Amino acid sequence: MSTKPGIRNIPPPPNSKAGTPYTRFIPREELGDFASWTPGSFSGAGAGAQKAPPPSAPEPTAADWQARIAAARQAGYQDGYRDGLAALEDFKSSFAQQATAQIGALLDAFDRQTEQLDAQLADTVARTAVQLAAQVLRHELATQPQLVATVASEAMHAIMLSARHVVVHLHPQDLPLVAEGAEEAIATRGARLVADPALSRGDVLVESDVGHIDARVEMRWAQALASLGAADPAADDSDDTASAEQGAE
Question: What pLDDT score was predicted for residue 248?
């Protein structure tokens, strides 16, 4: 019986049954040439076959480099353009907000100044009108002194009908004017005229047992100003003069 060269015939171990197959560990040096089996062995590749390396990419040419540089420049330009637009929009929004705030502040200040000017103008106009009216009143009293008779008549009619002991105080120069111009009212109320040097021309002061009527010029003037919502400039000037005198002391 011939055997393959390099492989020894080893008898079966003792006490083994004849004709019984057996297995044993075979040292590597007894196997000779061999190769381990892998699933890829059926595809025709050998056990020790190695995969071929992938083909290497060709080196870029000068045209390729120029194309890449142009593409990079274009991408950088697009990014810069986009960032510039975003920065411009942010700047316009911030500038618009600041401008709006500044214009609003200017308009508010202008409105406040306008209101102050309106108030000053209205006060100036009111003072001018009051001064003009005072001059007109003084002129009428000087040129038409008989007007005091009308004032005295109205003051006596304002006293209650049940009033008794009606006394009308007048400036000595107005006494004859009232006696002549308000004769009917004096007779109706049974009033008595009294000359009072402490009063000014045009003043009328009516007294009775139930009250009195102060129809002096300054009181009538104050009531007229109060109805107009204005102040007496003469009183303001006198207050300023008094304050100045106190400060000088």
Answer: 47
